[in-house]
Protein: Aldolase/citrate lyase family protein
Amino acid sequence: RENRLRTLFADKKLALNGWVSMGNSLLAEVLSHSGYDAVTVDLQHGLFSIEAAVSILQAISTTGAVPLARCSENSLGEINKLLDAGAYGIICPLVNTREDAEQFVRACHYSPRGGRSYGPARGVLYGGADYFTHANRTVLTLAMIETKLGLANAEAIMSVPDLDGIFIGPADLAIDMGLAPDNWKDKQVTDAIQSLVALGAQLGKYIGIFAGTVEMAQRMKEYGLDMVAPGTDIQLLRAEAQARIAALR
Ligand code: 3PY
Ligand code: MG
Structure:
């Protein structure tokens, strides 16, 4: 099966990415039915482990949303399990150097392009019986740039062969710049985001970002991002609960 995120990228269309940080497959199924182009299972900040991620990936793949996962760290073992479980793309946190990016890309590709080990139990169910022959080119690899070091090394990171692109972590980046995590409007952060978007356009790489509010997501759309994740499941639930309570108090 093709990866529809690649088609959207080729057509220069913005992809909207849902974010699962609660370890419940029904919630993931509900979210995935809402019309997102992709839904990400977050193993880094989601308070659950790999077993829960499997049923969440199953829930996402009952819909047309492309199942993605954010691994908890740059680990061959965990990344291989997530791909075996049917993730069609991996977002890797805290990629700070070219070496980090090379390690990440190797974990996502079978030899000779990498060192991924074979055993795609659900990969073949989601991706098709020919999974092995196309996995290296269908699975999307996004390295997170979310530190000053990562930002300084952005061009070297983005130049790694077989890395599809980056996913910007504005909260960690703001913290590393000495700002509050939600201070994305600070010029240091917006300048960084815009320079990464320009670099992506120059190098033909995919650029995604997390945006906790609708206002931020709209601004990121204006900046020309390829993918925006407009809030986590928890953020959506809280915002809507608070809005309804405020409307009725
Ligand atoms: C960040 O903003 O640091 C993130 O990792 C968002 O997912
Ligand atoms: Mg982060």
User: Anything to note?
Assistant: Residues 187-203 form the longest helix (17 residues). The pocket of magnesium ion (ligand 2) is lined by residues 93, 146, 169, 171-172 (CB under 6 Å). The two ends are 49 Å apart (CA to CA). The CA atoms of residues 188 and 243 lie 31 Å apart.
